[in-house]
Amino acid sequence: MTLLDVQNVALRLDDKQVLGGVSADFKQGRVYAIVGPNGAGKSTLANVIMGLSGYTDIEGDIVYRGESLKGVLVDERARRGVTLAWQEPARFEGL
């Protein structure tokens, strides 16, 4: 079953094309890695999938569990299970 489907996603920021027609599908139960050099768009793609501010005016679509995420706010995406995991955990003084 496809868990997440990135469908021909394109994004322009400051009149610069930063993602151009990215498509991928991610199956449930598998582990994936997105790799590439600095500036290739890895973090930008993650921000688009998460729906972070400044990354929502996209062409194409992000479909999670069969439902489009267009117009779905970041907090609602997180409630549905779409979120980012950082390379380093948050550090809190005293913990």
Description:
- The protein contains 2 helices and 4 strands, in the order E-E-H-E-E-H.
- It is globular, with a radius of gyration of 14 Å.
- A hairpin with a 2-residue loop joins strand 3 (59-64) and strand 4 (67-68).
- It is 17% helix and 34% strand.
- The chain has a 4-stranded antiparallel beta sheet, with helices on one face.
Task: Provide tags for this entry.
95 residues; alpha+beta; 4-stranded antiparallel β-sheet; 34% strand; globular
Topology:
Elements: E1 2-13, E2 16-27, H1 42-50, E3 59-64, E4 67-68, H2 74-80
Antiparallel strand pairs: 1-2, 1-3, 3-4
Q: How would you spell out the order of helices and strands?
A: EEHEEH
Spatial separation of the terminal alpha carbons = 39 Å
Count of individual beta strands = 4
Low-confidence stretches: none
The number of helical runs is 2
Fraction of residues in helices? 10-25%
The shape, in one word, is globular
Main β-sheet, spatial strand arrangement? 2-1-3-4
The proportion of strand residues reads 25-35%
